Amino acid sequence: MSITPITGQDTLQKFIFDNAAVRGEFIDISATWREVLSRHAYPAPVKKLLGEMVAAAALLSANLKFNGSIIMQIHGDGPVRLLVVECDAELHLRATAKIDPEAVIADDAKLPALLNAHGKGRFIITLDPADKMPGQQPYQGIVPLDGDDVGTVIENYMLRSEQLDTKLWLAADDNVSRGLLLQKLPYNGGKTEAAPLTEDEALETWNRAVILGSTLKEEELLSTTIDVLMQRLFWEETIRVFDPLHPAFHCTCTREKVGNMLKMLGRAEVDSVLEEQGHVGVNCDFCGQHYDYDKVDCAQLFATDAPVEALISAGEVKH
Ligand SMILES: [Zn+2]
């Protein structure tokens, strides 16, 4: 368990157009992203996709009035089997990818070839409340993978599932993960009482914001700080800026959760690994932390009657 130190602190900057027609968020989550990458070796095209998802998950998470975790997943049917990012209400975040070990991934491979080779890719968003009522299930939205890049997939999901006009510009490489989110706010007659906006004017503000956002090129997003980008894109707009938030890397794995996962695997499976290896070793898929269980530990796991918690993915047993 570790949280990124203050040095190289990440920033999420929320803002709102002063006439309240559009809200936005800029994020630079590069330090958190480098923490993710320091634990895994992924091919460049996978880094790009997962890095963009890391930025997007934090952007969506900061936008939700929801105390819990957002889990964003793409289940792939190509060489990449799974991309997953979990982000909680404090913007503590972890991410991992599962890749077919046999796969050869071209340097210029894009999302459709990597994750939707047979049209069976799925985009899944799970909202897992922090304080669940007994028996309460997390909310889950599952849609076909509609879009050729991470931003478009999420935009389409937001429009279809949440009826929210959302635009995302995302970029990630070995070092940097940055993004911009713009969202059209529901028309409420305009915020300023003295001079309320007409619906057409509100729509005009949205269209103008999207045009400004669309001038943002991937290279520019990778090479420019968000303060400069904010100024460059929206200098002619009246914008209210909120206190910055600070996302950070944080893995939620614990020995207890890994123990629960072993209990779900079942005694027979655990016993067979014990017999073969003399102990059971589990590496966390997200942070790489190693957990080891000897015969006594395993006997204790199955001796207690504590309920087994449902887990998203704590890791896999090493054979
Ligand atoms: Zn972990």
From TrEMBL:
It comes from the Bacteria. GO terms for biological process: protein refolding. One of its GO terms (cellular component) is cytoplasm. Keywords: Chaperone, Cytoplasm, Disulfide bond, Redox-active center, Zinc. The keyword Coiled coil does not apply. Pfam families: HSP33. The keyword Zinc applies. Coiled coil: none annotated. CDD domains: Hsp33. GO terms for molecular function: protein folding chaperone; unfolded protein binding. PANTHER family: 33 KDA CHAPERONIN. This is Hsp33 family molecular chaperone HslO.
